[in-house]
Amino acid sequence: MIIPFEKYNGLGNDFIFIDGMNSPVELTVQQVAFLCDRHFGIGADGVIVVDPCQEADGYMRYINSDGTFAQMCGNGVRCFAKYLVDHGYVDSSRGTLVAQTLAGPKSITFEVDEHGEMTSATVEMGVPVLNPPAVPCLLPATRLADGSPAAVEVPLDTPWGVLRFTAVSMGNPHAVCFIDDFSQLPDGLFSNPEVKDLRGLRLDEIGRWVEGNQAFPEKANAEFACVGPDCISMRVYERGCGETLACGTGACATAVAAALTGRTERSTRVELKGGSLDIDWGADGIVHMTGPAAFSFSGTINL
C-alpha cells in the first residue's frame, strides 16, 4: 500500500501527517513504528492522522512513535492547525479554528503569511489538572493556598538520590523537576561530570526511570528544568517516545509548576532544545501556548 504523507515540525518536534479527511486511515502499531523509524522509515516523534469531525474543524488522532495513543500534543496541535489552514480545510482569513483531540476541543488563533499559510498559533490548552488522582499520579498531595490538593515538589527516591517532582496534567501527565543547583547532583547523572548542566544531563536514563515509575500509573512525561533571569530552560523525555526537541504540553506543565513554586510569574518563556514557546497561565486558570509550526517535506511511502 502506497500512501502520501507530509512532514511538519514544531520547534523540531516532528510529525508525519496522513490525511484521513476523505477516506479512513488505519495503521497498525508496527506500521507506526516503521514510519517513525529514523533509519528505515521517514523518521518522526509521532504520526498524526487528520480525521473529519462534526463538532470541530478536524480531529487530531495523535499516535506516539511506539504505536500508543496520546491524549494531547502541544506542538502537534499547532502543526495540525497549520495543516488544516494550508490545505484549505479552514479559511486562512478566519484567524481561528477548533481542533478536537482526545483531551477535548482546543481553540486556536493563528497568523498567516502573505501566501495565506499559517506561521504561528496560540492554543488554548485548558486548565491544568493538579489533583494527584486526576493527573494521574500516586504522589502524596499537599495543599495550595486555596486549599485544593496538588503534588508540588514531592520528594521521590531515585537511583541518583532524592529529587522533587511536581505533577501536572495538561491532558496528559507530566512530572516536572526543577534543578536549582546542578553541582549537588551525583556525577553519574551527567555525560561529563566536570561540566554539570542541563545539556549534559543523562536524560535518557533518568527520563526513562521517571516515565515508568510506579508513582505514575499511566506513565508520565518527565521534564527537567532550571530557571534563569529571562526564561525557563527545559529538556523533556516524552512517554512512548523518548527525548524530543520540544514538547508543548511539557512547556505548559513546567510553566505552571514554576509559578506554583514561586520561581516565575504566571506568564513566561520556555526555552527548549528546538526553540522557545511563550506560556501564559491566565487569571481565569486557562493556559495559553504560543509558538511556530513549519512544513518540512512531503512524499509517498510503501507500507
Describe the structure in your own words.
The protein is mainly β. It contains 4 helices and 19 strands. A hairpin with a 3-residue loop joins strand 11 and strand 12. The longest helix has 13 residues. The protein is globular. The N and C termini lie close together (5 Å).
- Can you count the beta strands? 19
Rg calc: 19 Å
CATH topology of the largest domain: Diaminopimelate Epimerase, Chain A, domain 1
| H/I helix tally | 4
Structural class computed from helices and strand pairing? mainly beta
Order of H and E elements: EEHEEHEEEEEEEEHEEEHEEEE
The CATH H-level superfamily of the largest domain is: Diaminopimelate Epimerase, Chain A, domain 1
Rounded mean pLDDT score: 96
Count of the domains: 2
Considering DSSP H and I runs of 4 or more, what fraction of the residues is helical? 10-25%
CATH architecture of the largest domain: Roll
Q: Please mark out the parts with pLDDT under 50 across 5 or more consecutive residues, or reply none.
A: none
Shape: globular
Largest sheet: 17 strands, mixed
- What is the distance, rounded to the nearest whole angstrom, between the alpha carbons of the first and last residues? 5 Å
